[in-house]
Amino acid sequence: MNNDEILGKAYDARLMRRLLAYLRPYWRQVAVAIAAITVGAMVSLAQPYLLKVAIDRHVATRQLEGLAGLAVLYCALLAAAFAGSTCIPQTTSLTMTNSPLLLLPQTIASTPRDPSRSPYQPSYPCS
Predict the structure, then answer these.
(1) Separation between Cα atoms, residue 73 and residue 47, nearest integer Å
(2) Is the pLDDT assigned to residue 4 strictly greater than 70?
(3) Under 8 Å between Cβ of 54 and 77
(4) pLDDT in tens, 33-79
(5) Domain contains 58
(6) CA 18-21-22 angle, 5° bins
(7) By Cβ atoms counted within 10 A, which residue in 41, 95, 103, 107 is the most buried?
(8) Angle in degrees, 0-180, between the axes of helices 27-53 and 88-110, rounded to the nearest 10
(9) What is the number of domains present in the chain?
(10) Residue-number span of the structural domain to which 23 is assigned
């Protein structure tokens, strides 16, 4: 395989399967993040439609009744889009990355050490 073939290959299914194996313990967080991103995208698509409705039905015809309700709905959609596209995915990714770090002290404490070594002496040879 030459360099052009390696660089031209955009998707490697074998590599993707290996990476997905690391996500298996966090499948719930991944599902929540994907669902939140999907909902955030759909809500973002609803915002221009609400503006169209507001302009066509209320502003253009000078019937301002109901415009306040559309404004409240628009603000709620803005908040939902922000939560769906930013807050929830970031929170779930932080949870996935920090969970193993929280278990690290327990893992280190449960690892048997050689009693003849100092606790401050590295277990690997220094050069």
Answers:
(1) 9
(2) no
(3) no
(4) 888 888 888 888 888 999 999 999 888 888 888 889 999 999 998 88
(5) yes
(6) 105
(7) 95
(8) 170
(9) 1
(10) 15-92
Residue 25 falls within a domain, yes or no? Answer: yes
Tens of pLDDT along 84-97? 778 777 787 777 77
In a domain, 29, yes or no: yes
> For residue 101, what pLDDT is reported?
63
Q: Is-above-0.90 flag for pTM?
A: no
Residue 124 maps to a domain: no
Cβ partners under 8 Å of residue 70, min gap 6? 50, 53, 54, 58
